[in-house]
Design goal:
GO terms for molecular function: guanyl-nucleotide exchange factor activity. About 65% of the residues lie in helices and about 0% in strands. By secondary structure, the protein is mainly alpha-helical. The chain folds into two domains: about 60 residues; about 35 residues. The longest helix is centred in the last third of the chain and has 19 residues. The radius of gyration is 18 Å and the shape is globular. The N and C termini lie far apart (about 65 Å).
C-alpha cells in the first residue's frame, strides 16, 4: 500500500467523523508532508494543490511549520540560499518573486477616482 493509498484511507476515516476530526487529520497530514514521512517531495504539491476544503485545511496547517516571523519579504525569499533543497532552482525563487509582485499590484495597484 503506497503513501497515497494510506492517505486516502486516513482521510476518508477522518472526514466521516466531523469537523474537529477534519482539522486533526489535516494537522497530521501536514506534519507528514512537511517531514516527508512516507511521501516524496513531489507528492507535497499534489496534496496541497487540490481544490477542496480538506486540502485547504492541510495547506493552512502545512504553512504553520514555516516561521518567517520578523523577516522582511526579501529576507524570507533569501530562505532559498539557506535551504537550497526547498525550491529546485534560483529560477523558482525568481518566478515566485514575480508572482508575488503581480499579486501585490493586483491587490493594491488599483486607483479609485471619486468625482
Amino acid at each position: 500500500m503506497g503513501s497515497t493509498d494510506i492517505l486516502e484511507k486516513e482521510t476518508t476515516e477522518s472526514l466521516s467523523n466531523g469537523t474537529n476530526s477534519n482539522v486533526e487529520a489535516a494537522k497530521r497530514l501536514a506534519k507528514r508532508l512537511y517531514h516527508l514521512d512516507r511521501f516524496k517531495r513531489s507528492d507535497v504539491a499534489k496534496h496541497l494543490g487540490k481544490n477542496n476544503e480538506f486540502s485547504k485545511l492541510v495547506a493552512e496547517e502545512y504553512l504553520k511549520f514555516f516561521d518567517f516571523t520578523g523577516m522582511t519579504l526579501d529576507q524570507s525569499l533569501r530562505y532559498f540560499s539557506c535551504n537550497p533543497d526547498t525550491i529546485t532552482s534560483k529560477d523558482g525563487v525568481h518566478c515566485l518573486t514575480c508572482a508575488m509582485m503581480l499579486l501585490n499590484t493586483d491587490l493594491h495597484g488599483h486607483v479609485s477616482v471619486c468625482l
